[in-house]
């Protein structure tokens, strides 16, 4: 392997541990090394898969047939304008490092995921959303401009006015058009390091949706947790967290809350249990009965919480729920191909309630109840392959074992028929199961065709490929009439 | 579903595998395989049906070893890859490591056995000899264990075995830098063990006493001398039981414990 680009031989794994392979990971440290990586792939006659923080639940950043380029070596915040809140960063910068750099200056990223470890490049490629998607859109909506290295090794700048097609296709283009090397994005001025958070218990799904709809105009963040084990009248019962930014003056001492010290998650639970070992405790409950119990306890605890007054919580503590327990996924098992998949269903608002109800009912009758369910509200955006629509998403975590795998996939494919018939979509940062047929049915035909045509134009040899591409897109690209 | 296990016929006895490793996976790399303990380890692994990669500076010795193991490999369903490699060429290790793991179909176990111990006179200070020991015994160990640690961390299983020595327990007059290299290995391997324990992978430090090999050939009446095959047997057993530090044979643990507790002012007058 070339001496110029750092590389190592690793087990490259889906975040959900449901898939993985051995292979070479390249970690370029400059734009020139990114360009060299394309040369290397060509020289070896193999494809190049792109990886950021490795936080996609499924196979979006795996490439078992070639090399993997991990962008984490380009991780400098190049510039931050304190008057406008515009950040300009190398694309391998992690969200964790972005918020840590800007919080003391009175800003918070406009869009963050539930974990802080994705890179900007990965987040842009997936066009991630947060608990405020309904209010501010996806990450793509906050991006002003980016630099991208195309498979030809050409470095191109794109924005809404410059190369707008590439701008709208590469954001959400799951790394199939080029390597983001620089991203310029807007962040949000905040007047406190805290949010005001209200907890509301809801008895069923309709109640949760009604609460969201009544508050999308006034809330800054809305997220619902659902106890998927509840059935019948209680189907969809759960807990809503509704948060808003504080107005100037509400926080009497913003200098104290806008500090890293105030934001950081606690290192221990109850002051004593080291976080790094918590997954072992969770593992004891990682079966249907245990998770039924944990969900029920959480719901009852949520009801108690919802009787309390609104409380203040640091941005990081509210945003990065998934980071509270490091490696909590190991509760699902640490052996290869044991883990979880997340099945996140996006539905237009018209069909959402009936379809989610049917999905949960089907999970119960199939005996495959998700261990975690998370509910969010979304809005459409202009990116070609966006998952976001004027409607809802419901993210379901299913346990995977080598034994259950085939049956779980079948279950998900059955659910997919229900979802697609209702005008739904899936999201590649989470997905492990969709097929080319699903892809063809979930996107507007003109958008999908335009994307595949652009892919062919910028990457005629299909240098950029991942396991996800081969699973869900390659047959569609191959069957496209040639231009 | 896909697995990365190597395909091989089901025959012969099925000895215990490394703890935490699926039963059908037995893939190992032995660095320093042409003689002594390394050679004995390769022969044992071959007899157990491993897919084993044997590396050493001398390619002809490896070919002879392969010939010696041929019957065992056939009987147990193992296979052997040999590569001539000088561990001082650390630059070629990452790619060689990747190629070997690909050829083996994965990796569960790596044993670093390569070491040199040139004769050093009682008043001799030969920097060239000393730095050669440093680069073979320590540099090579780091160059091979680092990529293994990366792989084992990401795959969350695997065992690294470093063959150090009782010579690393104290700074003896006889061969100052040989002892230094083994002390460096001990600390390095302990640090790797502490890192890898977070993901369930393991590192075993081996401290052999006197083993009947070329290295001990000139010694007069070495204490508790054992054969290289005995040493190999005990080393593999310790790795499988996830022992942290193993004296080979075990009697040296008693000696080592005593010797490590002798005050320096007294130790310098002793010849132990």
List the keywords:
heterodimer; A: 483 residues; alpha+beta; seven-stranded antiparallel β-sheet; six-stranded antiparallel β-sheet; 33% helix; globular; B: 272 residues; alpha/beta; seven-stranded parallel β-sheet; 9 strands; disordered N terminus
Explained architecture:
The complex is a heterodimer of chains A (483) and B (272). Chain A is built from 18 helices and 19 strands. Chain A is of the alpha+beta class. In chain A, the strands form four sheets. Chain A has a seven-stranded antiparallel β-sheet. In chain A, strands 5, 6, 7, 8, 9 and 10 form a six-stranded antiparallel β-sheet that branches. The two termini of chain A are 36 Å apart. The mean pLDDT of chain A is 95. Chain B is α/β, with parallel strands linked by helices and 272 residues long. Chain B is built from eight helices and nine strands. The N terminus of chain B is likely disordered. Chain B has a seven-stranded parallel β-sheet, with helices on both faces. Chain B has a two-stranded parallel sheet with strand order 7-8. Chain B is 44% helix and 15% strand. The interface between A and B is medium-sized, with 21 and 21 residues.
Strand order of the largest sheet of chain A: 16-11-13-12-18-19-17
The number of helices of chain A is: 18
Q: What is the overall silhouette of chain A?
A: globular
Structural class of chain A: alpha+beta
How large is the radius of gyration of chain A? 22 Å
Mean pLDDT of chain B: 90
What assembly state would you assign to the polypeptide chains in this entry?
Answer: heterodimer
Beta-strand residue fraction of chain B: 15-25%
Report the strand count of chain B. 9
């Amino acid at each position: 392997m070339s001496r110029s680009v750092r590389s190592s031989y690793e087990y490259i794994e889906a975040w959900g541990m449901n898939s993985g392979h051995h292979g070479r990971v390249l970690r370029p440290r400059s734009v020139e090394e990114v360009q060299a990586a394309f040369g290397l792939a060509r020289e070896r006659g193999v494809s190049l898969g792109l990886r950021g923080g490795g936080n996609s639940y499924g196979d979006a950043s795996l490439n078992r047939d070639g090399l993997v380029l991990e962008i984490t070596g380009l991780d400098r915040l190049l510039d931050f304008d304190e008057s406008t809140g515009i950040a300009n960063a190398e694309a391998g910068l992690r969200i964790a490092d972005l918020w840590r750099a800007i919080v003391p200056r009175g800003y918070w990223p406009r869009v963050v995921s539930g974990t802080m470890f994705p890179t900007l490049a990965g987040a842009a490629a997936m066009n991630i959303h947060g608990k405020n998607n309904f209010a501010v859109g996806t990450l793509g909506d906050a991006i002003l401009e980016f630099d991208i290295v195309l498979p030809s090794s050409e470095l191109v700048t794109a924005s809404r006015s410059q190369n707008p097609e590439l701008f709208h296709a590469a954001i959400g283009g799951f790394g199939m058009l080029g390597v983001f090397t620089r991203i310029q994005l807007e962040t949000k001025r905040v007047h406190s390091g805290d949010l005001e958070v209200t907890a509301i218990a809801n008895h069923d799904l309709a109640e949760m949706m009604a609460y969201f709809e009544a508050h999308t105009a006034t809330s800054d963040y809305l997220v619902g947790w659902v106890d998927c084990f509840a059935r019948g009248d209680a189907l969809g019962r759960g807990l809503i967290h509704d948060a808003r930014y504080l107005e100037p003056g509400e926080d009497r001492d913003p200098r104290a809350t806008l500090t890293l010290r105030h934001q950081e998650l606690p290192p221990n639970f109850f002051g004593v249990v080291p976080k790094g070992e918590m997954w072992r405790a969770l593992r004891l409950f990682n079966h249907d009965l245990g998770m039924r119990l944990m969900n029920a306890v959480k719901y009852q605890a949520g009801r108690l919480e919802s009787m309390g007054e609104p409380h203040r919580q640091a941005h990081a503590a509210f945003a990065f729920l998934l980071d509270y327990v490091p490696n909590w996924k190991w509760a699902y098992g640490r052996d290869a191909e044991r883990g979880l998949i997340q099945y996140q269903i996006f539905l237009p608002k018209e069909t959402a309630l009936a379809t989610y109800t049917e999905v949960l009912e089907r999970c119960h009758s199939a005996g495959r109840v998700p261990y975690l369910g998370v509910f969010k509200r979304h809005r459409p955006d202009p990116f070609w392959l966006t998952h976001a629509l004027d409607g809802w998403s419901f993210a379901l975590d299913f346990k995977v074992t080598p034994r259950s795998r085939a049956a779980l996939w079948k279950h998900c494919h059955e659910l997919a028929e229900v979802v697609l018939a209702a005008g739904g979509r899936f999201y590649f940062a989470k997905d492990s199961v969709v097929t080319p047929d699903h892809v063809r049915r979930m996107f507007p035909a003109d958008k999908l065709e335009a994307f595949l045509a652009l892919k062919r134009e910028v990457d005629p040899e299909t240098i950029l490929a991942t396991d996800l591409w081969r699973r869900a897109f390659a047959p569609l690209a191959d069957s496209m009439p040639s231009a | 579903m896909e697995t990365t296990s190597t395909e091989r016929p089901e025959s012969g006895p099925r000895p215990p595998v490394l703890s935490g490793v699926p039963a059908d996976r037995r893939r190992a790399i032995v660095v320093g395989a042409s003689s002594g303990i390394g050679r004995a380890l390769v022969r044992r692994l071959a007899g157990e049906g491993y897919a084993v990669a044997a590396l050493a500076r001398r390619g002809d010795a490896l070919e002879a070893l392969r010939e010696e193991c041929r019957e065992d490999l056939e009987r147990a369903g193992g296979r052997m890859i040999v590569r001539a490699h000088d561990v001082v060429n650390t630059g070629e290790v990452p790619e060689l490591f990747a190629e070997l793991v690909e050829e083996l179909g994965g990796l569960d176990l790596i044993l670093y056995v390569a070491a040199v111990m040139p004769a050093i006179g009682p008043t001799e200070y030969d920097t060239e000899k000393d730095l050669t020991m440093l680069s073979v015994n320590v540099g090579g160990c780091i160059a091979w264990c680092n990529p293994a640690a990366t792989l084992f961390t990401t795959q969350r299983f695997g065992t690294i075995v470093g063959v150090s020595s009782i010579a690393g327990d104290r700074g003896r007059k006889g061969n100052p830098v040989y002892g230094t290299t083994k002390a460096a290995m001990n600390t390095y391997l302990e640090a790797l063990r502490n890192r890898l324990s977070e993901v369930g992978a393991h590192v075993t430090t081996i401290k052999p006493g006197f083993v009947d090999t070329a290295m001990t050939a000139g010694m007069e009446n070495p204490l508790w001398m054992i054969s290289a095959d005995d040493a190999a047997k005990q080393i593999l057993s310790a790795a499988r039981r996830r022992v942290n530090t193993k004296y080979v044979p075990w009697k040296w643990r008693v000696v080592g414990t005593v010797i490590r507790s002798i005050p320096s002012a007294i130790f310098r007058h002793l010849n132990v």
